[in-house]
Each structure stands twice: as C-alpha cells, then as structure tokens.
C-alpha cells in the first residue's frame, strides 16, 4: 500500500503488529510437526502452547479452553453445526459467519428482535428461556459481543447471568472486541466464544474457539487427535505463533481504548462540522471506541466508498454486494433503520496504528468528496 493512503477499515482486517511479524517469521524456521515426539516436534508444540497461553491471558480464559481454528468463521460454524441444537436464538445483526450456519442448521430458529438502538430484545430471550427450560443443553443463543458495522456492544454478561439456570448454551462472537475493549471470558459467563487473529493485529487464517471447561460441544473437524481431539488437522504453526504474539501485544496496550475513542471523537466532530446533515448510527449506544457508522442522506454508500478510495482513503460499506447489486446492510436493516440509511451508511474503523494525521487527511478528503457537485445523488 502506498504510504500516502489512509486505512480506515480495521474492522475488516487490521495491520500486522510488529510483535506478530517477529513471532511468525521466527516460527517459519521451525521444522517440527507439533504432534511429533522428537526435539523438533516438541519445539513446535512449545510455540503453540505459548500462543495458547497468550490468547487465553488476553481474554481471561484457561489455556485448555482455547482451541485454535482457521478463524472465527470456522469457530462460529463449529458451534452452530456440531451441537445438534433443537432451537437456535439469534438476531439479524449477527455476522454472516453466524447467519449462514444458522440458516442451514436444520434447527428451529427464533429470530430475536433488535431495538433501533441496536440492542437485542432481552424480553424475547426471557420469553423463550422460560418456555424452553426443560430442554436443557439443546438450545443455543448466538449473541455477538460487538457489531462489526456499528460497534454496538451487546449485554452478553446480562444474558448469561439471567439465563444460566435455564441451561442455554450462550455463544458470543467476540471478533471485534479485543484491542478495543476488555474481553473477559470468565465473567461474560458464556459457554463459548470466537476470536480472530487478523482483527487484533495477527495474521489472517487463524482464530480460536474458546470453550468453557466442561461445556458440551462435539468436535466439528474430525480425523486427527490435535487440539485434545477437539479440532483435527496439523496446526497452523506460523499463524498461531503470530496470533499469540499479537494477543500479548494487545494485552499490554491498556491505553488503546482511550486512544481510539479520542481519535474517533475527532473524526465524528469533524464530519459533523463539514456535513451537518450526516446521520451517525447509534452514537448513544455503548459501542466500540474505534467504529463509526455514518450516512449522508441522498448519497449512496457505494459511491462514497469509491470516491474515498480514489482519494486515497480505504473505508467500507455495510451494504451487501451480491450479483452486482448493492443492497441494504442486513445489520442496519435488522435495527429497523430506514432503507436510505441502511444502503447509505459507510463504516470508518480505526486501528492500533491509526494516527491524528490519518484523521486530518480523512477530514480534508471528506470535505471534497461530499461537496454536492463532486458526487451524484441517489436518483
Ligand atoms: N465475526 C465478525 C463479527 C467479523 O467481523 C468477522 C470478520 O469479518 C468474522 C466473524 C469472521 O472472522 P474470520 O475472518 O476470522 O473468519
């Protein structure tokens, strides 16, 4: 990427941290298979177990609760696909890696309503939990920790606290949270949680499913004894080494949340000043400090993303693009937002290496890009 570009799409993937680069480069020279009992194998095994401790420490889990996967998509698919659930509760704001498997799970799907503020309806969970309580262990609740488009944070701990006794398996997709807010697996009280390396400064293609010690969840990928027989396949040693190092770097960077919030506030204040008509999504909600979702009435997200890209700024839109047709963002639609907003919102997401200069450059460009004569309005 040219040095003059500004990257504001860290929720899609964030830059590799130097600590991760060093760890994965070093792991490239390790020849052993972690399952081999010789010296080389044990060396590889040690790298994996160190990374497991680093990831576990970041999210306050026990190392034995961390199972490495090919990413959060696999982790989410595992939970939905292997549990033999009779019923699954989830909302329309979930990531596609949840929505897809849920749609194909063959279980009864209870679609949870979401408020305009982006929060899942607790009463709907309650109504269901009371009715389902005899069916212990067969009901799954998929409830993301923070939304990838809006940054809105769900009351996951409140759900587990209230409904633990009903025997629901509560899974949280926590992909967007580490490095932006504290994540505490133990106090969230969930049975399982997915995390992804490339969202926190590690390489892509690696993640983890954190499974509470004692939670019942059959293996998904079978055919080998790796990961204590929970996930077969020779481990992605290099990726896991990078993931662990990135997790440790995140864990020691305690000021990240505040730093990101200060930059995000400047970004939003600048946009408000330049474009008073801009509509910000859910600024009153509890949300991640790095994410802004904003629409400019009468401008399409597609056009904004392209114009910004041509001007050197990378952002994204929540609008799904399939068969060449850009539709409304499923997450914003699930919140009941007007179609113009759901098709018009772009996402700006800051990351660990974002700077004041990035925000200043963005705001200069934003002024030029949103000036009426430079942009075509929705017909
Ligand atoms: N869940 C959320 C909320 C995400 O934002 C993403 C990635 O975009 C995923 C899951 C999938 O993660 P991975 O890329 O590790 O498969």
What does the model show?
The protein has 379 residues and is α/β, with parallel strands linked by helices. The two termini are 34 Å apart. The C terminus is likely disordered. Helix content is 39%, strand content 14%. The chain is built from 14 helices and 15 strands. The strands form four sheets. It has a seven-stranded mixed β-sheet, sandwiched between helices. Strand 3, helix 4 and strand 4 form a beta-alpha-beta unit. Helix 3 runs parallel beside helix 4. The chain binds pyridoxal-5'-phosphate. Pyridoxal-5'-phosphate (PLP) binds next to helix 3.
The averaged pLDDT comes out at 92
Strand content: 5-15%
What ligands are attached or bound here?
Answer: pyridoxal-5'-phosphate
What is the 3D shape? globular
Give the oligomeric state.
single chain
Quick structural gist:
This protein has 14 helices and 15 strands. The chain has 379 residues and is α/β, with parallel strands linked by helices.
List the helices and strands and how they pair.
Blueprint: E1 6-7, H1 18-27, H2 39-58, E2 66-69, H3 72-82, E3 87-91, H4 96-104, E4 108-112, H5 122-132, E5 139-142, H6 156-163, E6 169-173, H7 185-188, E7 192-196, E8 207-211, H8 226-229, H9 237-252, H10 256-274, E9 279-280, E10 291-295, H11 301-310, E11 313-314, E12 316-317, E13 321-322, E14 325-326, H12 330-334, H13 339-344, E15 346-349, H14 356-370
Parallel strand pairs: 1-11, 3-4, 3-5, 5-6, 6-7
Antiparallel strand pairs: 2-8, 7-8, 9-10, 10-15, 12-15, 13-14
Helix pairs in contact: 1-9, 2-9, 3-4, 10-14
This protein binds pyridoxal-5'-phosphate (PLP).
